[in-house]
Amino acid sequence: MDFHTEFKPLTVQPQEIEGKSFNMIDEEFGEHAFTKRQYKVVQRVVHASADFELGHSMLFHDEAIQAGINAIKRGEQVYADVQMILSGVSKGRIEKHGGSVNVYISDPDVMEEAKRLNTTRAIISVRKAIQQFDGGVFAIGNAPTALLELIRLIKEGYAKPSLVIGLPVGFVSAPESKEELAKLDVPFITNVGRKGGSTITVAALNAISLLAEKA
Amino acid sequence: MDFHTEFKPLTVQPQEIEGKSFNMIDEEFGEHAFTKRQYKVVQRVVHASADFELGHSMLFHDEAIQAGINAIKRGEQVYADVQMILSGVSKGRIEKHGGSVNVYISDPDVMEEAKRLNTTRAIISVRKAIQQFDGGVFAIGNAPTALLELIRLIKEGYAKPSLVIGLPVGFVSAPESKEELAKLDVPFITNVGRKGGSTITVAALNAISLLAEKA
């Protein structure tokens, strides 16, 4: 088969599309009280979702952006609750500083321990992360149980993450888990309500590593 | 570290959460004209996004659901435009019939060919899929260029997919690509507007394989 007979080279390059999209987002976003750097994260979230409501629902701890930049540049490890985040995130900007993105949810030891304790793999995988590294960026886009466990471990003094990106999507537990996160005095990026998910978490994480590149 | 001191076994099981979420979706969804089986797809899309607007924007070719079920049960191959879809989708219900989920975007031959022709890897990976298998389920959640190329190949008689799930997200090209898809008389699942993405595409694909299980 020769698919090339009708082939026309691209007239619009991907980077051009991204620039145009960001201009459209800026025009339509409306008023807000985000700082300039927080808005960079919000912009990517809207770019990944085409959802302005989600963009306006974003919530930042005052130190979140700087803490995230510092963590990436120090080469701290990144934890992600699900494989989709690992697949979607731009790993180069994290790895060049020595960090990597870690998902433990399908590790045999995590599965075994979850079964033994009659709990979720998400909870055990957070515990594994806490045992594997100090500080770190915790990116949770799927499992409210992972976020709730992380919050518990922070409160009890076991965990001291450099940044928590908590953006699980869902009708049950997800909104509540994000409310709990927003009460903590740790650097966090989260949002109000049910919306979120892996692609949104990837967008936030990518925005932070981009800011780290320019910082 | 002993994290188990405060450990409480789960009182709410994941399946219970899913059931509760689906009840909430049913209660809030409001009026619609979807068939019973189309609504199963819509319900999962809303579950994955917490976005009722997105749910109501879904669009189905009349034969889409049945064609998708048949394709899965015949063990046809599934193409996905990005790795996130492969990571997120429930593969067991596809693989048990002999199908598998295929992503070509990072294959060396695809990267080389895209460079040679000055085009996107997404376009070349769609062409590769067409050369690899007949029929098939095409799940596109990210790259409008992939969807537009598939539409072109269908129109020119090179491709005859059993089902096209076209749900790219974005401000530029994405809405237009989905409009073009909705004009074709091939089994499609898409939506109107900018919203969509990998998690939404995964939800639609999972819904179809679940329907295949019960058919």
From TrEMBL, chains A, B:
Q: Which family does it belong to?
A: Belongs to the CobH/CbiC family.
Report which superkingdom the organism of origin falls in: Bacteria
Give the pathway listed in the UniProt entry for this protein: Cofactor biosynthesis; adenosylcobalamin biosynthesis
Q: Which N-terminal residues, if any, form the signal peptide? A: none
**Organism field:** Halalkalibacter kiskunsagensis
The protein here is known as: Precorrin-8X methylmutase
The UniProt entry, under InterPro entries, shows: Cbl_synth_CobH/CbiC, CobH/CbiC_sf
- Decide whether keyword NADP is in the record: no
**Name of a matching Pfam family:** CbiC
User: Cobalamin biosynthesis precorrin-8X methylmutase CobH/CbiC domain: from which residue to which, for each copy?
Assistant: 16-208
The protein's UniProt keywords, in alphabetical order, are:
Cobalamin biosynthesis, Isomerase
